[in-house]
Amino acid sequence: GKENVDSRHSRGRGGETTRFHTVNVAQPVRFSRKCPTGWHHYEGTASCYRVYLNGENYWDAVQTCQRVNGSLATFTADQELRFILAQEWDLEEKAFVRKDQRRFWVGYQYVITNRNHSLEGHWEVAYKGPSEVFLPPDPIFGTLAMSEKENVLCAQLQCFHFPTLRHHGLHSWFAENCYEKSSFLCKRSQTCVDIKDNIVDEGYYFTPKGNDPCLSCTCHNGEPEMCVAALCERPQGCQQYRKDPKECCKFTCLDP
Q1: How many CA atoms lie within 13 A of 178 on its CB side?
Q2: Which CATH superfamily is 40-189 part of?
Q3: For residue 199, what is the enclosing H or E element?
């Protein structure tokens, strides 16, 4: 909102009048950023998602996701999957074999139970999380350059580049050799992100993203709560000034 300036008068020593000006009077704030830069937020699951383009095999992709406090993505409902498919990810075309199709490792594995005439088996969640997840339908089998001793394939979600196909939710599931290199989709819980894009741990104070750098909140379940605002004294001897958007009570004087 607009800057509010509150002028207050008090009687000082010797009877002179002193004027105090406070700026940055706290306004209601909507917190729109609950994920670090580069991640997409979905309110339905309070989660953040990011595609990594560096081609890695399935096991390396698992470790990369774990290093950012996440896991390879699984999906709790069809609405969550449709959200993923509809996103315009920041992707490089050279990372994919076909420009109109994109595949990502996700957090499922296909366990083969019978090799006789067809590869019979079933999907399992690779790493069980706190929420129930749905399992994919029967897969399309990929290159299958695997030995006879292996009985596990890994899941790739294929989505499409064209917006009309993406927004209609068109996609495919592939069961692929886990040692093939591919881009992958990580998922993590939403988190508190401060005004300088740092991730904030549970229970700590921070200034959330928004337009009030003088706000201080407590991080609770990935949300800013119990917020208080500081009021700043107007800069002395300066008529025109600009507030620093990321530092509380810091001004730049614009006077000639």
Answers
A1: 17
A2: Mannose-Binding Protein A, subunit A (3.10.100.10)
A3: strand 199-200
- 73-102 per-residue burial string, b: 16 or more CB within 10 A, e: under 16: bbbeeeebbebbbeeebeeeeeebeeeeeb
* Span 41-88, pLDDT tens digits: 888 888 899 999 888 999 999 999 999 888 999 998 888 988 888 887
User: What separation in angstroms does the CA of 236 have from each of 14, 213, 243, 252?
Assistant: 21, 20, 14, 12
Whole-model pTM?
0.65
Collapsing DSSP to helix, strand or coil, 62 comes out as helix
Sorted by where each begins, the domain ranges of the chain are: 40-189, 192-253
- Contact 255/240 with Cβ under 8 angstroms? yes
As beta bridge partners, residue 50 has 186
Helix (H) or strand (E) holding 51: strand 47-56
The DSSP symbol for 86 reads H
pLDDT tens digits, one per residue of 206-218: 888 777 888 888 8
Neighbouring C-beta atoms of residue 250, cutoff 10 Å:
14
